[in-house]
Fold:
Amino acid sequence: MAERFDYYMDRCLYHPTEGFYAAGRGVAGRRTGDFITSPEVGPLFGAVIARWLDARWDELGQPANFTVVDAGAGPGTLLRSVEGASPRCAQAWAPVNVDPNGNEFTQPELPESLEGCVVVANELLDNLPFRIVERTLAGWSELFVGEGEEELHPTMYVPSFEIALGRRAPLLERAHQWVHEVQRRGAHSVLAFDYGAPTTEELANRGGWLRTYRSHQRGDDPLANPGEWDITTDVAVDQLPLPSNVQTQAEFLRAHGIDELVEEGRAHWQAHAARPDLEAMRMRSRINEATALLEPTGLGSWLAIEWRRT
Ligand SMILES: C[S@@+](CC[C@H](N)C(=O)[O-])C[C@H]1O[C@@H](n2cnc3c(N)ncnc32)[C@H](O)[C@@H]1O
Structure:
């Protein structure tokens, strides 16, 4: 029996024993491959996020209890590197890692109330199961999957976007709902990093938005070997709740002081190069980490999307 693409994707990724993210498979597999998420590049990403968090803490009036949630935390690397950067807000913060496929340091669900909390999500929205629609002469069709074959079924569904005839686009209902739910629970701000484009039309015209990954390669067929590949999409910002700010990752990191942190690293290294210790090596590594995080055709082109409570 053919099933809708989002149900198929849900099973491929999150089936408790067969899914890509079943214990010990997904996140580790992705980390050892040639595709590395920003927090896994090294501690510099977290050091910049630490500065952004300090600004949010100040904005909130430096509360004595400041909950910071990393949603889709994987192994929890991001908040560990934030902590390592010793931000001012660390005196008040309670770090919470949320991931249904995480480890003993993560919780499976978001806290019920997010009042006064800040939520960060790196590469989560692209990983939430999505539907796929195609613009046809007769209206819209939807992609179903059965026995390794795809089927297009006509649908009455009318998306809020328009794309060219014959093109396909992801339908990001769950990503939309996720952001909406975080807002509904009262989060002060949400910061998501994802590959994507401002509009669905742009994604559909560009193509290549459906991405599959396995440790050493990017694939192109989500129907091949279900559960063996990560399935993701470029995120179309126009399908999400209206953000307060959208920048590229490079713009965001620069706006929050990455260049200064790299300069500090370079100066520290030069001062200690004759007898380098671990700290000096860590500071020197900021230079290479910044190159990877700002790469114009790679991580630097990811989008940093912010929602602020007004
Ligand atoms: C691509 S990984 C990113 C991991 C980490 N943020 C990083 O940047 O290295 C996406 C993570 O989102 C998690 N995830 C999937 N659905 C989720 C949900 N509804 N809430 C929280 N996390 C979820 C997956 O288990 C996976 O660990």
